[in-house]
Target: Putative photoreceptor synaptic vesicle protein
Amino acid sequence: MNDTESTTAMFPSTPAGTPGGGGGKAGAPSLITPDYVLQLNKIADDYLCTPDANIYEIDFTRFKIRDLESGAVLFEIAKPSVSDIAQTTSTEGGAKKEPAAAATEATADSATVSGAATTTTPTATEEVEETFEPNAGRYVRYQFTPQFLKLKTVGATVEFTVGSKSVKNFRMIERHFFKDRLLKTFDFEFGYCIPFSKNTCEHIYEFPTIPPDLVNEMIQHPFETRSDSFYFVDGCLVMHNKADYAYNGGL
Model:
């Protein structure tokens, strides 16, 4: 595929199955379409597809956020390779390390996994918490400093691989809410991906201007800002990820 521009919030590892529907909130149609998710007026109550809907074996392996104005890398996370995981499953004494502890590694020039503010740039303090049951890899929690809400344009680069099936019309719809208020909808095209390919693309996020009173409310109510990321192939839902956000890092 050609390099375009896109994002994801976590690194799901999902087996093959049947795409399209099931497992969603009460009243959801059996086949989830882009038009359906675009008309939702709040965060989905549940996941709108099961993990095994990812029959294309799409696997996100790296994610980076950068401020386009300054060029600063705000956050970067990479999924370790199989060889990396193998190396971390044992120590010098031969003791095994729990897989969950080695499941994700994060690096950032201006972000720390502890959530403490950094001295280099306060823009994005970041903390990630992943759940492993029952929806392992489909939920992530971020913590940023208040300065993040002042950013105008952010580039989100994602690296991902696909399995034995070609991926046509790969599309992501990401909807951000504060409580039940829609903040912004992002709608990005990944295009076509050949089988067994590794793809890298960047999507440009132009953030809306948020009124000062709403900014203060978002800072004062951590993790009540949430997002749904819906991934479609040829109009069929194959992945659904969730995230929530806090903007009180360093306070």
Q: What stands out?
A: The first strand starts at residue 59 and ends at 67. The chain has one domain: 34-246. The longest helix spans residues 212-220.
